[in-house]
Structure formats: structure tokens, C-alpha cells
Amino acid sequence: MKVIIVDDERLARKELQSLLAKYPHVEVLSECENVKSATADIERLKPDLVFLDINMPEKDGFALLEELDYIPEIVFVTAYDEYAIKAFEVNALDYLLKPIQPERLEEALNKYSSSESVNNSEQKLGLNDQVFVKDGDRCWFVKLSDVPMFESEGNYVRVYFDNNKPLILKSLNNLANKLDENVFFRANRKFIINLNWIDTVENWFNGGLMVKLKTGAKVEISRRQASRLKDMKSL
Fold it and tell me: Is 218 helix (H, G, I), strand (E, B) or coil?
């Protein structure tokens, strides 16, 4: 498991690194003291997991997430508990309070390992697969070829098909790991799109793309994801 630690306090970084040293399967790739250096290291090193402080000078941990194209799992680390709800609204894997308790750190690492082992053991879902979707009292058995996109809403994902938009209790990261990325492509932090539903594509700002789906919806593909898509689909 490859991780990056982001915290403006050097002692806090060293303390967390010392706790992580007890786990031989965890490799700390980098320590960063601000959003600028963290953004560069996350994009370059592509960690599995980022331990992210919330309160930092200039920009906070939530601002960092807005700047990322590469999307690792996030464990927020903070001395304050008032950010917990917002942390889970952005699909954080876990939320640790300082000083970090060793047993809570182990829980967070186990959460990541459990989610990875489940995702790796499952066969990827493709266009011909059908999935059960339940939202409150309503249920559907939906063929994935009929789903043009998925949209993240906090700890939930909105599934679009026909005239329905039910919410399911699942993070977009977990859903992306279950779907065949050759068809269901992670456009950005908020959307997964069905490539078969793309109607038009145009160049967009900063090297990104803007796609219009056959439903009329428009979704921006981030610069980094646009580059991945071109690599995947080019002749």
C-alpha cells in the first residue's frame, strides 16, 4: 500500500510515519507540508492512500481535492471533529482525530485493504450485465448498457437511466472499481460516464474535454483523464 502524508506540522508528519512504520505492507512515498507540494506529488507518484490534514495555511485539505485529477483514497487527519460530515461528503475513506490512536489507524488501513480485496476478487461489470438498484421503496433491475452516467453525491451515487435517478449508498471510487473502465470511464472526481452514450466531444480548457451525452447532459473530462482516454482509445 503506497501512501502520502500531507500535514503542515512536521512533528505530526513524523508521528504518523512512525505509526505507519509498524506495517510492512505500507510504503510512505512522500511527506508534504502544503497543498502545492501535495498536488504535485500525488499526481506524480499516484499513491493508493493519502493521509490529509484539513487545517493548513493558504489552502486546506478540501481545496486540495478540488485540484486533483488523479483520485486516491483519502483519510482525513485533523485535531477538530466539526469537519467530519464534510469529509464524508467528499467520499473520504475515514476520518482520524489527532492525536491519532493506533487502533483507529489500523481500522483505516483495514478499511482500505478490505475494499481493495473485494474489488480485486470481483469480475468487472460490463454493458451486458444487469444490476439491482434500490432507492427507498422503489427497486429496479437495470441493464448497464442503459445507464449513461453515474454522479457522486457525498457518500451516495446517483444512477441515471430512462427517466429515473435513484441514489445508492456507495462511493464513486468503489463503484469505479467494480465497472469495466473500457466502457464506464471516470471523467472526473464527480462523474463516471458510459462511453457508448457520448454524442459529441470538444476540446475544453486546460487540455480537458467536454462531452455531450445522447441524453443532452454535458460532462467535463479533466485534463489528466482526457489524456488517459486518448491513450486508451487511440489507434
Answer: strand
Query: Which residues, other chains included, contact 22 with Cβ-Cβ below 8 Å and sequence gap of 6+?
Result: 102
Please state which CATH number belongs to domain 2-121: 3.40.50.2300
Percent of the chain with pLDDT over 90: 59
Where would I find the H helices in the chain? 10-20, 35-45, 61-67, 84-89, 102-121, 172-178, 223-233
Q: pTM of the predicted model, to two decimals?
A: 0.62
pLDDT band at 206 (very low <50, low <70, confident <90, very high): confident
DSSP reduced 3-state for 159: strand
What pLDDT digit, counting tens, does each position of 116-136 carry?
665 655 678 899 999 989 888
**CA pseudo-torsion sign 124, 128, 132, 134:** positive
Contact predicate 88/170, CB 8 Å: no
Do 2-121 and 130-233 agree at the fold level?
no
Going from N- to C-terminal start, the domains of the chain cover: 2-121, 130-233
- Predicted confidence at residue 57, as pLDDT, reads 86
CA distance 16 to 5: 8
Domain 130-233, what architecture? Beta Barrel (2.40)
Higher pLDDT pick, 10 / 80: 10
Q: Which three cell numbers stand for residue 87?
A: 469529509
